[in-house]
Amino acid sequence: MLTHSIGLLGRALLWPMQGLPKGLEAFGDFFTFVYRSFWISLTSKPRWSVIIDQMRFIGVSSFFIVFLTSAFTGMVIALQTGRAFALFQAETLTGAVTAISLSRELAPVLTALMITARAGSAMAAQLGTMKVTEQIDALSTMAVNPLGYLITPRILAAIMMMPVLTGLFDFIGMGGSYLVGVGLLNIDQAIFTEKIRYYMHIPYIIEGLFKSIFFGAILSSVSCYMGFHAKGGAAGVGRVTTRAVVISSVSILVADYFLTALLF
């Protein structure tokens, strides 16, 4: 009985280590995939027609969801902070706190999560469908590099459009906070804007835009990698799409911590 218990304990302790080689292999394969995709962008002529089409899909088509998310995020922050600051007669700082929170943290993170849910999942599903139906193999037989034609334009488009969408999130979110702060909480308009001007600084906005570049690279790379390596038919496409969204979202939150620590 004791021997059996020791054996079970040993297997339980070794179980996490059994998947370590496979995890490290997948990790290395992912970085090789990303490296090859970026190397193609540096050594070959960009496919601007494909890149622009992806920029339209990732950026322009995501405007409505970014508008809704940013507007209500700014309104909620203003409502919560305004009521909390009113306890200390400091409600005039509502606009400044909202502006700093949005520009440095919430705008890049929430924008990245929304784009992951909308565009990242679509990337994984599109590429996964092409993989299981052997369309990617057909490109190779026609002497078209699948990475240069399918992957690199998506990654570059996400990197270029994420700062734009983050900037829109900042602007619209502040508009929502202004409506709540001035219209609902009855904060003086001049004081509301003056506090923003006094406490808000350009480096705060640059910090958020800088983060968004990395978030765009993360969500597009993970989504493309998952879709590019899909297998198992329609069920496999569904699995890789789910994994792409989950892994991208978690990676964005983890990267946000390290980027914040680095920038501070």
Would you kindly provide a written description of the structure presented here, covering whatever features stand out?
With 264 residues, this protein is an all-alpha fold. It has one domain. 87% of the residues lie in helices and 0% in strands. The chain is built from 10 helices and no strands. It has helices spanning 2-18, 20-43, 48-58, 63-86, 94-132, 135-141, 146-184, 189-199, 202-228, 233-263. Helix 3 packs parallel to helix 7, helix 4 (63-86) packs antiparallel against helix 5 and helix 5 runs parallel beside helix 9 (202-228). It is elongated and about 70 Å long. The model has no long low-confidence stretch (mean pLDDT 86).
Features of the shown structure:
264 residues; mainly alpha; 10 helices; 87% helix
Overview in brief:
With 264 residues, the protein is mostly helical. It has ten helices and no strands.
Domain count, please report it: 1
Q: Poorly predicted ranges (pLDDT <50, ≥5 residues)?
A: none
Give a quick account of the main beta sheet: strands, pairing sense, barrel closure. none
Count of helical segments?
10
Measured between the Cα atoms of the first and last residue, the distance is: 56 Å
Order of helices and strands: HHHHHHHHHH
> What percentage of amino acids are in beta strands?
under 5%
Let me know the number of strands.
0
Shape: elongated
Rg: 23 Å
Give the class from helix and strand content and strand pairing. mainly alpha
Summed over residues and divided by their number, the pLDDT gives a mean of 86
Fraction of helical residues: over 70%
How would you classify the quaternary structure?
A: single chain
